[in-house]
Amino acid sequence: MGIIEKMRLDGKKIFVTGGARGIGKSVATAFAEAGADIAIVDVDIEEARKTAQELKDQHGISTMAIQTDVTNPEQVNAMIDQVVAGFGRLDVAFCNAGICMNIPAEEMTYEQWKKVIDINLTGVFLTAQAAGKIMIQQGGGSIINTASMSAHIVNVPQPQCSYNASKAGVIQLTKSLAIEWAGKNVRVNSISPGYIGTELTLNSPSLKPLIEKWNEMAPLGRMGRPEELQSICVYLAGDTSTFTTGSDFLVDGAFTCF
Ligand code: NAD
Question: How far apart (Å, rounded) are the C-alpha atoms in residues 234 and 144?
C-alpha cells in the first residue's frame, strides 16, 4: 500500500469539539474526505447540525451533531457515550474548542480569567480524559489538541494573558498525557496554529482592526487559512504517525521564528 493510501482514515470514528465552524469544521472536512465518520461537537447545535449534514451529503460518511459545553464534565461524558453508542468505537479525538478574550491583565475579572481557562484548558482535559478512557479500553487511539502559537510567544499588541497561559497549559497537558498513555497505545499531540482567518479573528471587534498589523509582522505577509491545518491533523489522526506522540506542531508561517 502506498503512503497516500496508508494515510486514509476509512472507517475511523472521530469527534471534533468546536467542530461547527472555523478550524474544527475545516479539519472535520478533511477527516471526512479521508473516509472517517465524524461527530461534530459544539455548544452551537444549529451550526453543528448544518456542518454534520454538509459533511454527510458531500462525503457519504456517517455523521452526528452533539450539543456539548466542553467545560461541563457530565455533558462531555454523555457526548462520549453517544459517540461510542452511535459509532461503536472511538479512534480519534480532536479537542479543539476554544475562545480568546483581549483584556489588559490589570482589568481582567476573575470570571473572565476563569472562562478562558475553563474552555481552553479544562475543556481540553475533560474531553481528552473521557476519550482516553475509551481508547485505553479499546487498546489505542489518537488525541489531537489545539494549542496555539500563543503558547510559544506573547502576541502583540493585543493583551491576552489568559489565552496565552491556557494554550501553554494545553501543550504541557498534551505531553503529560502522552507519557501517561504511551504504554497504552494512546497517542496525544497538539497543533499550534499561527493567526488563522476564522470568526475568532476576522469577525472579532477587538482583533479585526489588528489584522493589518499582524500581516506586517508575518514573514509570509498574511494569515493562514483553516485548510492549511488539514494535512497535519490527517497525519496525526492516521496510521502513518504511530511513532509521533507528545509532540506539538507549529503551523504559523514562521511567525514565531524571531
Ligand atoms: P471559532 O470561534 O471560529 O470556532 C470555535 C468553535 O468552538 C465555535 O463553533 C464555538 O461555538 C465552539 N465553542 C466555543 N466554546 C465552546 C464550548 N464551551 N464548548 C464547545 N464548543 C465551544 O474559532 P477557531 O479560530 O476555529 O478556533 C478553534 C481553535 O483554534 C481554538 O481553540 C482557538 O483558540 C485555536 N486557535 C485559533 C487561531 C486563529 O487565529 N483562529 C490560532 C491559534 C489557535
Answer: 10
Tell me the per-residue pLDDT of 141-164, one tens digit each, with 9 for 90 and over: 999 999 999 999 999 999 999 999
Whether 207 is in the pocket of ligand 1, judged by its Cβ within 6 Å, is: no
Contacts of 173 (CB under 8 A, 6+ apart): 121, 124, 125, 128, 145
Task: Give all domains of the chain, ordered by start, each with its CATH number.
Answer: 3-251 (3.40.50.720)
pLDDT band at 69 (very low <50, low <70, confident <90, very high): very high
Element (H, E) at 190: strand 186-193
pLDDT of residue 47: 98
- What stretch of H or E contains 81? helix 73-87
Q: What is the pLDDT of residues 243-256, one digit of tens each?
A: 999 999 999 999 99
Q: Whose CA is nearest to atom 44 of ligand 1?
A: 148
Q: How confident is the model at residue 36 (pLDDT cuts 50, 70, 90)?
A: very high
Give the number of the atom of ligand 1 that is nearest the alpha carbon of residue 118: 18
Q: Residues 75-108, buried b or exposed e (16+ Cβ, 10 A)?
A: bbbebbebbbeebeebbbbbbbbbbbbbbeeeeb
- Residue showing cell 496554529: 193
Among 15, 16, 17, 23, name the best residue to mutate to test ligand 1's pocket (greatest count of ligand atoms within 8 A of Cβ).
23
Please identify, by atom number, the ligand 1 atom nearest to the C-alpha of residue 69: 19
